[in-house]
Amino acid sequence: MFRLIIFIALIYLLYKMIKTFNRLKSERNENLQSKSTTDRGEELVEDPVCHTYIPLSQAYKKEISGKDYYFCSKQCHDKFTRKK
Ligand SMILES: [Zn+2]
Questions:
Q1: How far is the CA of 25 from the centre of ligand 1 (A)?
Q2: What predicted TM-score, i.e. pTM, was given to this entire model?
C-alpha cells in the first residue's frame, strides 16, 4: 500500500513537472520569436490598414493590381480589399 502511494505521488509530480516545463518552453519560444525578428535586422513592411510594421517573412503578402501589399493579418487584408 505504501508503495502505491509513493507511485501515485511520483506520477503526480511528473505530471506537474511536464506541465510546468511545457509552459516554460512555450514562453521561451515566444520570447525567442519576438527577439529574433529584431535581432536579425529583417526588413520591415508597413501594413497600409493599421500602419503596423511587420517583418517581411511574417507579413501577409498580397498582390493587388500589380502592386505588392503586406498586411499584418488576413483581417487587415480583407479590410483593405473591401474598402476599394
Ligand atoms: Zn494590420
A1: 28
A2: 0.49
Write the pLDDT tens digit of every residue in 5-39.
999 999 999 999 999 999 988 877 776 665 555 55
Are 46 and 53 spatial neighbours (Cβ–Cβ below 8 Å)? yes
78 and 49 Cβ atoms separated by less than 8 Å: no
Residues 49 and 32 in one domain: no
**Number of domain units in the chain:** 2
CA of 9 to the centre of ligand 1 (A): 49
Q: Note down the domain range covering 51.
A: 42-84
Do 34 and 1 sit in the same domain of this protein? yes
